[in-house]
Amino acid sequence: MKREPMTVLSDATALGAAAPQPMVRFAGVTKRYGALTVLDALDLDVAPNEKVAIIGPSGSGKSTLLRVLMTLDPLSGGAIEVDGEPLTHMRKNGALVPASAAHLRRVRSKIGMVFQSFNLFPHMTALANTIEAPMHVLGLSRSEATERARELLSLVGLDDKCDHYPSQLSGGQQQRVAIARALAMRPKVMLFDEVTSALDPELCGEVLNVIRRLGAEHNLTMLMVTHQMGFAREFADRVCFFSQGKIIEQGPPQRFFTAPEHERTRQFLRAVHEAV
Description:
By secondary structure, the protein is of the alpha/beta class. It has 10 helices and 12 strands. It has helices at residues 11-14, 62-69, 101-108, 126-136, 142-155, 171-183, 201-217, 229-235, 253-258, 263-275; strands at residues 24-33, 36-46, 51-55, 77-82, 85-86, 89-92, 95-98, 111-114, 189-193, 221-225, 238-243, 246-251. A 6-stranded mixed beta sheet has the order 8-9-10-3-11-12, sandwiched between helices. The protein has a 4-stranded antiparallel beta sheet with strand order 2-1-4-5, with helices on one face. A hairpin with a 2-residue loop joins strand 6 and strand 7 (95-98). Mean pLDDT is 91; it is low at 1-16.
């Protein structure tokens, strides 16, 4: 029997108001690498503008969830929808068929991703890194892309670093350029994959402050894989705990961190607390 997607109901939904269409929907999503199942028939709905923190042990499928959403890894089963449209398929003559390159490019353009390792072009300045995709993918003129890039680099506190190369920037500054670069594509969904794990605590704070500001000032749906439990508790609308390719437990941060219901969740949080 098909399982219903796991969601956390708002008060309005509980009172009978219609729930908004999810911005992102994972329906029975499975990802295998040979005999290893990394995502196991996973269901998850993410509402527009919702901030979801994804936590769990290494190898539990957290980063893979973001990679299949970004189409960096193909699905082994199930389906993903973004903003009401199928991602890897498209509707044609009343049926779902594999997505054309144009459909995939268009739907994927609604998603921006920031990686752990920055992934900046080392031979390009911060400004050049930020204008590249808007010009070549969105078709913006150089002047339009440059104006947008300067606004975004200012947003992340780097308006004085436009002409610096990645080697001239700290790790925290490089990560903020990566955030500006992702935002330059005007996504509706932002994915953050352990974006602070390569940074020391002071630089980590720089990046988290930028993400806080984005969440507060912009209409963005955010999925963040993180090991920063304090930040997840403060920033997220919902926390999802992954184990062995499944969501074992999810809920609002206050309840999740103070009264977890699942023993596996309690074990994980105890281990994290003891490691601090």
